[in-house]
């Protein structure tokens, strides 16, 4: 058997090698009868499920948005998952970079075909609307890392929809939706990501040929980062500075073909490639792109918001200057849902594992407890479940707000765009930051096994931590929200009406201190008073600095730390408020035990954040030390109350094992068996002796090196 293992790698391609190797790996390690690897489900998990006192599917339906939506999701999931070919023969993380990418393309094509042939016939174009989150979720059964097609569906198609004229949409969308072309969104450059007015790629109109000349004048103007750009896409949205009739009109989006549709070779004048290994996203071929006076037809400029006529005349169509930023706002809204989903996955893995894992002794000589019975473990984990709920419900609410503002804008009314921008910016910032931190908390809660890639927690973290940066960095987006808050504060001070999400300012500007009461509504009101206090302090600092001779821009910059904290506090209050109201609304007709457990989770979230911000409460409200002590006591009571339902709560997220892809989090709790099964798939276990022994170790050990 050893001989077969040793010779194999040399005679087969890497993927064929792994496929072949997976059939005899157990032989190689001489665990040939599988005796030690029990197939029966873990008893502790079974007991946890038996003691859960609420109807799990009721909460699943609430999170899905109703029983019909749960049915629809399950139907789509079962179509996709019943196609066994989605499974990897060998774990994707053990492949080299090229094989990983090729495997990701294979799986993306397979998944796309399933969606086109079987899901679209079921849902029609609904698949792009309310079912897109189901498609996104189901895709995780195919990819542990990221599909190279994510940007095609996530940004290329939405940009055409949001920025193209009806004629442009009718030309490009059918081709894109049918995957006849694959695109991405190339905005960021080597030199600029945040400050998009500073982008350097130029699109200069030539009226003689009715073309734009796309050019990258210097290294820093090279497009950098776009997902799927390096090898997959043949088209992309390029965001470039528009020049016509000798004048620059700022950044605009263009559809640019970069590769031949038949040979896939980069077209003359286009330089494209992949940017190299990254912390995550390693299957998404993030790329670079440069242009050498590359010509595209005039009508490849996306012209819904502004146009360049044949003679070069520039015409502004849109009623708001920032509508070209629309795709970013859309994706920020989508990302809140995206990270809620990923956090729910991490919580499921860590809670199930904590019910299976036993460690240490609470009382000497007694059986080792399940680690979930340590109150410190509950403290780490239950806030993750609660936050996943808070973000899921906030994301649904944000989506409704987004849709309403979009409908207004279709009628020419952009009045509510600044509030939407402020909300989507801060919710994107906080949800991604909280989720990344809590996924890491879940990993740490799983001890050493959480560090295994097969737990899926490291990959979840590396994916989600990037969301804090892309589509607008955390700090930068909170500063955008702060601009809106400071203006709103000034309006409230002068007695003018303010928009709904900042209406708390009208009461707070008077200067009263809020008296704490420990109810949910009381904690939320206190959170708003903390936000108001921080906004007020920022305003005072800016004014003081200006009084001392600073220009507004300098005073703003020097107050940046306070402004970010104010925007964070505002957003936290909004999340607490929305989470509370949505919980009450959605459980109005639920069974009593569902109502109770949803209320407990909600109170846990509110108490958690009150305790995290005791300094702020003491400073900006009339909260006393005794109030904090009773809040702490309530928090600890909630941990104990939630404990028996913890496994039921994560089961309610309803992730099939294929989507979780975790040795620690599978439904049956066969943690140790799965860890061993995955270990045996490691390429290093394909041979009893690695060739480096003969090449290096043996000579070293025998003093012959
Ligand atoms: C087969 C397998 C398939 C699997 C998939 C299955 C299904 C998929 C379906 C769905 C996918 C689901 C989810 C995920 C989707 C996609 C995500 C995946 C990956 C994404 C990868 C990342 C992509 C990117 O990162 S693209 C690049 C993004 N870049 C940024 O975000 C840049 C950030 N910078 C900015 O936004 C701006 O520069 C700025 C910081 C806002 C500053 O802009 P500036 O013009 O300088 O403005 P200024 O500060 O001066 O402000 C002036 C004024 O304008 C207001 N303003 C600013 N922005 C906006 C806006 N967007 N809207 C409205 N108003 C805005 C600003 O507040 C000022 O107002 P005022 O003067 O104060 O009143
Ligand atoms: C995994 C991944 C995928 C991506 N995919 C795409 C893609 O598909 N298409 C695309 O176009 N782009 C993509 N990007 C790029 C991404 O959008 C940018 O990286 C992001 O917008 C941040 O910009 P930056 O890298 O220029 O950071 P910088 O702006 O250089 O930020 C560096 C630091 O400076 C701080 N800073 C910057 N400006 C200010 C300010 N005004 N005030 C205070 N602090 C400031 C930031 O807070 C941060 O701490 C991707 C990035 C990643 C990581």
Automatic annotation (TrEMBL):
The cofactor required is: FAD
Q: Which residues bind FAD?
A: 188, 227
Acyl-coenzyme A oxidase N-terminal domain ranges (all copies): 55-182
Q: Does the keyword Lipid metabolism apply?
A: yes
Annotated GO MF terms: acyl-CoA oxidase activity; FAD binding; fatty acid binding
Q: In its UniProt record, which GO terms are filed under biological process?
A: fatty acid beta-oxidation using acyl-CoA oxidase; lipid homeostasis
Q: Name one GO cellular component term.
A: peroxisome
Q: List residues of the Acyl-CoA oxidase C-alpha1 domain.
A: 325-486
Keyword annotations from UniProtKB, A to Z: FAD, Fatty acid metabolism, Flavoprotein, Lipid metabolism, Oxidoreductase, Peroxisome
Instruction: Enumerate the active-site residues.
Output: 471
Q: In which pathway does it act?
A: Lipid metabolism; peroxisomal fatty acid beta-oxidation
Q: Where does this polypeptide localize?
A: Peroxisome
**Residues annotated as domain Acyl-CoA oxidase C-terminal:** 521-702
Regarding protein family, the annotation reads:
Belongs to the acyl-CoA oxidase family.
Q: What is this protein called?
A: Acyl-coenzyme A oxidase
Organism of origin: Bombyx mandarina
What is the gene name?
Answer: LOC114244056
């Amino acid at each position: 058997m050893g001989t077969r293992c040793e010779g194999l790698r040399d005679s087969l391609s890497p993927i064929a090698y792994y496929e072949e190797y997976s059939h005899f790996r157990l032989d190689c390690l001489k665990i040939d009868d599988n005796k030690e690897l029990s197939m029966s489900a873990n008893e502790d998990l079974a007991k946890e499920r038996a003691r859960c006192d609420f109807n799990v599917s009721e909460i699943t339906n609430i999170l899905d948005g109703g029983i019909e939506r749960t049915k629809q999701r399950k139907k789509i999931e079962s179509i996709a998952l019943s196609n066994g070919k989605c499974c990897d023969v060998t774990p994707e993380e053990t492949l080299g970079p090229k094989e990983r990418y090729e495997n990701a393309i294979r799986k993306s094509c397979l998944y796309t075909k399933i969606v086109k042939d079987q899901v679209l016939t079921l849902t029609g174009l609904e698949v792009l609307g309310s079912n897109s989150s189901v498609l996104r979720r189901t895709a995780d059964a195919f990819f542990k890392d990221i599909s190279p097609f994510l940007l095609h569906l996530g940004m290329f198609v939405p940009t055409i929809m949001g920025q193209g004229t009806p004629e442009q949409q009718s030309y490009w969308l059918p081709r894109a939706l049918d995957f006849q072309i694959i695109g991405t969104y190339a905005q960021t450059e080597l030199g600029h990501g945040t400050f998009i007015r500073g982008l350097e790629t130029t699109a200069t109109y030539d009226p003689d040929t009715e073309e734009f000349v796309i050019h990258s004048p210097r290294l820093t103007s090279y497009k950098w980062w776009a997902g799927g750009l390096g090898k997959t896409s043949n088209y992309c949205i390029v965001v470039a500075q528009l020049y016509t009739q000798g004048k620059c009109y700022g950044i605009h989006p263009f559809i640019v073909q970069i590769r031949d549709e038949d040979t896939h070779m980069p077209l003359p004048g286009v330089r494209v490639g992949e940017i190299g290994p990254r912390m995550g996203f390693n299957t998404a071929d993030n790329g670079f792109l440069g242009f050498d006076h590359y010509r595209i037809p005039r009508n490849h400029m996306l012209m819904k918001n502004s146009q360049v006529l044949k003679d070069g005349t520039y015409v502004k169509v849109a009623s708001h200057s920032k509508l070209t930023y629309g795709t970013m706002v859309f994706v920020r809204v989508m990302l809140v849902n995206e990270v809620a989903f990923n956090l729910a996955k991490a919580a499921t893995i860590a809670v199930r594992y904590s019910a299976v894992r036993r460690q240490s002794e609470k009382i000497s000589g007694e059986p080792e407890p399940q680690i979930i019975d340590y109150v410190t473990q509950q403290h780490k984990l239950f806030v993750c479940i609660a936050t996943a709920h808070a973000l899921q419900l906030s994301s649904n609410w944000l989506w409704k707000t987004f849709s309403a503002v979009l409908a207004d804008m279709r009628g020419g009314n952009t009045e509510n765009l600044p509030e939407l921008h402020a909300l989507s910016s801060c919710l994107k910032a906080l949800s991604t930051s909280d989720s990344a931190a809590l996924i890491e908390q879940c990993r740490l809660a799983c001890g050493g096994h959480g560090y295994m890639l097969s737990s899926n927690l490291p990959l979840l973290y590396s994916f989600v931590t990037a969301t804090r940066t892309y589509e607008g960095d955390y700090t930068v987006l909170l500063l955008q929200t702060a601009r809106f808050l400071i203006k709103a504060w000034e309006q409230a001070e002068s007695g003018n009406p303010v928009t709904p999400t900042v209406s708390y300012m009208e009461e707070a500007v008077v200067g009263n201190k809020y008296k704490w009461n420990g109810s949910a509504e009381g904690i939320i009101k206190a959170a708003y008073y903390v936000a108001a206090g921080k906004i007020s302090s920022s305003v005072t600092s800016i004014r003081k600095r200006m009084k001392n001779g600073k220009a507004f821009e300098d005073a703003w910059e020097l107050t940046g730390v306070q402004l970010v904290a104010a925007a964070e506090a505002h957003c936290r209050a909004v999340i607490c408020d929305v989470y509370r109201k949505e919980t009450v609304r959605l459980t109005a007709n639920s069974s009593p035990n569902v109502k109770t457990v949803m209320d407990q989770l909600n109170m846990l979230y509110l108490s958690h954040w009150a305790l995290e911000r005791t300094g702020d409460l003491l400073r900006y409200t009339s909260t006393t030390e005794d109030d904090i002590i009773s809040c702490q006591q309530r928090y600890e009571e909630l941990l104990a109350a939630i404990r028996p339902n913890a496994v039921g709560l994560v089961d309610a997220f309803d992730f099939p094992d294929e989507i979780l892809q975790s040795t620690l989090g599978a439904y049956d709790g066969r943690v140790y068996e799965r860890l061993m099964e995955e270990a045996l798939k490691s390429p290093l276990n394909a041979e009893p002796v690695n060739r480096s022994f003969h090449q290096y170790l043996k000579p070293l050990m025998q003093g012959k090196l």
